[in-house]
Amino acid sequence: MSVSIDLTGKSAIVTGSGRGIGRETALLLAKAGACLTIADVDETTAAGVAQEIRAMGGAAAHVRTDITSAEDAKKMVRAAIDAHGRVDILVNNAARWTTKLFKDITPEEYDVDIRVTLYGTLNASRAVLDPMMEQKYGRIVNLISDAGRIGEPYLSIYSAAKGGVAAFTKALAKEVGRYSITVNGVAPGVTHTPGAQGFIDSAGGDEKLARAYPLRRLGQPIDIANAILFLASDLSSYMTGQIFSVDGGYSTPG
Ligand SMILES: NC(=O)c1ccc[n+]([C@@H]2O[C@H](COP(=O)([O-])OP(=O)(O)OC[C@H]3O[C@@H](n4cnc5c(N)ncnc54)[C@H](O)[C@@H]3O)[C@@H](O)[C@H]2O)c1
Question: Residue 147 burial (CB < 10 Å; 0-12/13-18/19+)?
Answer without folding.
Answer: buried
